[in-house]
Write a structure and sequence with these properties.
Elements: H1 2-17, E1 21-30, H2 35-46, E2 51-57, E3 62-67, H3 75-84, E4 88-103, E5 106-110, E6 115-118, E7 133-141, E8 152-160
Parallel strand pairs: 6-8
Antiparallel strand pairs: 1-3, 1-4, 2-3, 4-5, 4-7, 5-6, 7-8
């Protein structure tokens, strides 16, 4: 009986520790030039599971997405949805929480669905301030070719949260 209780406790806490994820995305969208375009993209994005709040701004040329707490969405899925609606996804400002991995002079942040390679930026020095373990950061994800979305991104950090 003690073993069963112990397994249940480990399984429960193991589930809670798996929260490495994308939390917020401000996605630049190229090709929106009318209000019905923005409305159509917003409707398409709202159909995705894991989004808490969606707002598409024609004036800004961006989709503003807040993701729910235990979502399993990836930036790749979001950009594919933008593409499916007839637009190009450009760079994105994101908030991610993930596991920091440092090896061979490379720093990466891994979420449950993707890997973000941290661009070392001497001007802000943020990459050198990251500590091992789970980190929460804000940054700009570099634009990828819409035809080659891999789930491996380059991110320039703007803030450690």
């Amino acid at each position: 009986m003690k073993k069963i209780v112990m397994i249940m406790i480990v399984a429960t806490f193991g589930t809670f520790s798996s929260y490495a994820q994308l939390q917020k995305v401000d996605q630049e969208v190229f090709g929106m030039d009318c209000a019905p375009c923005a409305y159509g993209l917003e409707r398409g994005l709202k159909k995705m599971d894991g989004l808490q709040n969606v707002r598409v701004s024609l004036n800004d040329g961006k989709a503003y997405l807040e993701l729910s707490k235990n979502n399993s969405l990836s930036l790749k899925q979001i950009q594919e949805e933008v593409k499916k609606n007839g637009f190009s996804a450009k760079k994105a400002e994101v908030v991610i929480e993930g596991k920091l991995i440092s090896k061979d002079d490379k720093t990466e942040i891994q979420t449950d669905t993707e890997t973000y390679s941290v661009i070392k930026d001497a001007s802000n020095g943020l990459s050198s301030k990251l500590k091992p373990g789970t980190v929460k950061v804000k940054g700009i994800v570099q634009n990828e070719d819409d035809k080659n979305l891999s789930g491996n991104w380059k991110i320039r950090l703007t803030e450690i949260l």
